[in-house]
Amino acid sequence: MSATISRSIRPLLRPAVRITPPTTTPSRFFRSTSVTMGVHNLKTKQDFYKVIAGEEQVQLSENTLSPKKVVVLDCFATWCGPCKAIAPQFVKWSDEEAYKDIHFVKIDVDEVPDLSQELGIRAMPTFMIFHNGDKAEEIVGANPPAIKKALDKYAALL
């Protein structure tokens, strides 16, 4: 009896093949992004110094970055609520055309504690802007207007 039931159910268990007629979709406009756009995670102290020094081509664990004169560093912690809150905005800024000549990088202060101590990170998030290899500005806390103002200031220099 169970064999009869299983044979009768078997056709129902086979995936149904759906045939959909081809449709024409309008072409979508897209914007290509360069490899350097986006936020890059720095995993080591050496990666940080390579990016800040503006070496010709920086080979990080993720990909290769071309040299830039302005670097914005986000010092964050995974357990930090304000860090999590501002992270999407930081990514959005990194993809904006106005800031295409700025490197956006971040470090997890718990993963690179020696660098965090060397930079004097006492609160998270801390944003540091480096211009031509030198620390030019520091913004402590998740303060989008202050960060945007600093980004605009340094984007105008490029």
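Second entry:
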Amino acid sequence: MNFEDYETLPTTDVSTHMTAGAIAGVMEHCVMYPLDSVKTRMQSLSGTTSYRSIGEVLQRMVSQEGILRPVRGMGAVVMGAGPAHALYFSCYEYLKENMTHRGLNNHLAYGVAGSVATVLHDGIMTPADVVKQRIQMYNSPYKNLLDCIIRVYRAEGLLAFYRSYTTQLAMNLPFQSFHFVMYELCQNMWNPERTYNPAIHMASGAIAGGVAAAITTPLDVCKTLLNTQEGTVKVSGLVNAIQAVYKIGGPLGYFRGMSARVIYQMPSTAICWSTYEFFKYMLTTPVAVDSIGETPEAESPPKSRGPAPDMAGSSRG
């Protein structure tokens, strides 16, 4: 794309949001994947192994299963996160802009746009999460990504990949609500002019993601239980999962892996925010450089167009 194309690129261009979103999603999930593997192990209720800390889980994974074990299954999230986040961000930005231009209350517009985007995003990421978490489990019988997909499909059918979809939505919709509220509070305090500021985007996103992750941990535990069942299905649906978690782990069972989830979500959200805003800024705000290397007068940073959604996987997780 040449300079003229950049200069005339509208800030609402769908390809811009899709490109920035896809890069942000893949980078976020890849960087944080080892900690996501730890979280899955800590939340699992299907095995006899219990873990006391994040460090213990990571140390045992590496010593007993090899140094590459924490990143095994990453291909599933790479395949899912790219298209899921591209659709997520582009849908959110499009709906948000259209609703706010029609006079709808900003906070309501953010909520509605984020909810619709979440439904679409989770439709792509839920199967990827199933495959990823099956491979992340201790003593996983699957050789690789393709082997997992084929064996799950043959043994449990297509619905196995969407068994936790309603739970995923039940978790991510309130997650987004809490995330937006906290993000808006941070932005109002630190960036009332809503200018492009990577440091503030990262800090606001990290705080918002951490708070939302802690609040929605019980639902994430239920999702992990649904995703990691093998063979004959014993638990199906959110209500049954809630009952099963209580029966197995009691009240504290709902908060297994909360520390790993929060520690995962804070940098994950910060990475996603900063990456998305950076590439959106780069694709919509070109810097002209003439033939002798001089740059034009600096322009004031563009104002951020309201909050962009977190990745799901979020909450992802």
